[in-house]
User: Fold this.
Amino acid sequence: MNTPNEILRINDLKTKFFLEEGTVFAVDGVDISLREKETLAIVGESGSGKSVTALSILKLIQEPTGRITDGEIHYRDRNLLDLSEKEMRKIRGNEISMIFQEPMTSLNPVFTIGKQIREVYKYHQGLNKRAGNRKAAEMLDLVGIPNSEKCIHNYPFQLSGGMRQRVMIAMALACNPRILMADEPTTALDVTIQSQIIKLLMDLKKEMRTAIILITHDLGVVAQLAENVMVMYMGKAVEYGDVKSIFHNPYHPYTKGLLNSIPQINDDHDRLKIIKGIIPSPFKLPAGCKYATRCDDVMDICAKKEPAYQEKENGRKVRCWKYTEGI
Assistant:
């Protein structure tokens, strides 16, 4: 059951992929608490489980290859994992919406922009073509697309990358959802367009009072948009806290590595700092801490036993033996 002001609670979510090479634990026991109007950033390298977590929330994992095997996803005091596909369709795009990666491939190339946005209103609100086009134009105006009444007759290939991303945001926000999940919303956009998209999301959040789950590897975007951060590595949450605490006093060595890899203006080093080693194979995971093979602070126990995800002061959480008492 959700607590006051909590719109989404996820307990011990596990999503696996069953492949010929073996089983991949894509999401392995993740817990999330999202409050109304909060922006939670989920960060980590490619393959850490960020996008699969979001797809799991919407129950969009493709079976039989992938499957949610355990956990609870409580939204408005209902466990989404108990709902039928018909019930989930009423929630997707209406109450929980998602901006997918790669707007060029996410938008259907053979349908106009207006038709694709209009379909959202037709399915969830029963609007006819004229009313749907009017609402579609209003949403395009809202996300800053000029000549919206003309744009609804355009096809995706006729728009720039930044404009296509704005169209994706318009579609996701069409029904004023309570939760918006944005998967790498600024990837492949130039710096100027990135800045415009970030400002747009900030403005829309204030105007529509929507909670946001931001999935990204760009810590600069996190610093501008999010209040809280969850860091993921190999399908597990390794650290959680508010943005200021995470950036100024990271606990987990992986979080420190991510932050140290950001270029600094006043840094006179010739080379960028990197995290040593590579991500372990998902088919041959180490027995202990999954980060032990890359960690600068590794101890003997790290290779033998996985640390618990424990809560520290001020709501901070960390999965690391360095912060476990009595070892």
